[in-house]
Write a structure and sequence with these properties.
There is one protein chain. The chain has one domain. The chain is built from 11 helices and 5 strands, in the order H-E-H-H-H-H-E-E-H-E-E-H-H-H-H-H. The chain is α+β, with helices and mostly antiparallel strands and 224 residues long. The longest helix has 18 residues. A hairpin with a 4-residue loop joins strand 4 and strand 5. The N and C termini lie far apart (51 Å). A 3-stranded antiparallel sheet has the order 1-5-4. A two-stranded antiparallel ribbon has the order 2-3.
């Protein structure tokens, strides 16, 4: 699993993941009390969850399409408005950071960016192991990491988009059931995603999502 879909910048990836951790961490419970860093403010449990959250951050078109699905279920206009903002812009083309599909869905090695965060004292990875393999990883955000994430958004306006988008991604995930398994199942419902070959780059669905948006807007206007 050493192949990536793009020659990413580990420092840029580290910043993106830091902002994602800040939005996504939940309270540390008794299971992690003995392994959590003393300065940890929260945890993202399992690499699968972090990868699936990162996928929606890296593919705005897939995120928008999921917002349309939620709109069809609930009729909440804010969901249609958010999807429209994404799809009526060039965001799906400019913001996409490709990922490859592996056995369990979208994947990119996290070792390098997490090493950057770890060396700086911003995040810590703890691994649960058996004699044969690593069972799962827990990603702890430190106090310094939270402070750095929030100061980055204040000090660098170009990162404000990531601050806003990470919160939207997490809100969508919470409605799905904020676990890696739940998000993996949901993302595999997308036929283009599920139909991508192993080790192949997951393609954009921007055009299909825009056609879906136009149809929904037309239906909404007809019912007004």
């Amino acid at each position: 699993m050493g192949t990536t879909a793009s020659d990413g910048d580990p420092f840029f990836d580290a910043v993106r993941l830091l902002l994602l951790l800040d939005a996504a961490v939940t309270d540390i419970d008794l299971r992690e009390a003995n392994t959590a860093p003393t300065d940890a403010v929260g945890v993202v449990r399992t690499q699968t969850l972090l990868q699936k959250l990162d996928f929606w951050l890296r593919y705005p078109d897939y995120l928008a399409d999921e917002l349309l699905t939620e709109y069809e279920k609930s009729g909440e206009q804010v969901l249609l408005r958010l999807a429209t903002q994404i799809l009526d812009s060039d965001e799906p083309e400019l913001r996409q950071i490709p990922m490859l599909r592996f056995k369990f869905g979208a994947y990119e090695p996290l070792d390098m960016p997490m090493s950057v965060l770890s060396v700086a004292g911003l995040a810590v990875v703890r691994s649960s192991r058996t004699d044969q393999r690593v069972r799962h990883h827990d990603y702890f955000l430190t106090t310094r990491g939270r402070q750095t994430a929030r100061s980055c958004i204040q000090d660098f306006p170009a990162l404000a988009w990531y601050g806003q988008r990470t919160r939207l991604v997490v809100a969508l995930a919470q409605g799905t059931g904020m676990t890696g398994t739940a998000l993996r199942r949901r993302q595999y419902l997308q036929r283009d995603y599920a139909g991508t070959g192993l080790n192949e780059e997951i393609a954009s669905i921007a055009e299909r999502a825009r056609q879906r948006l136009a149809a929904l807007q037309s239906t909404t206007a007809a019912q007004a």
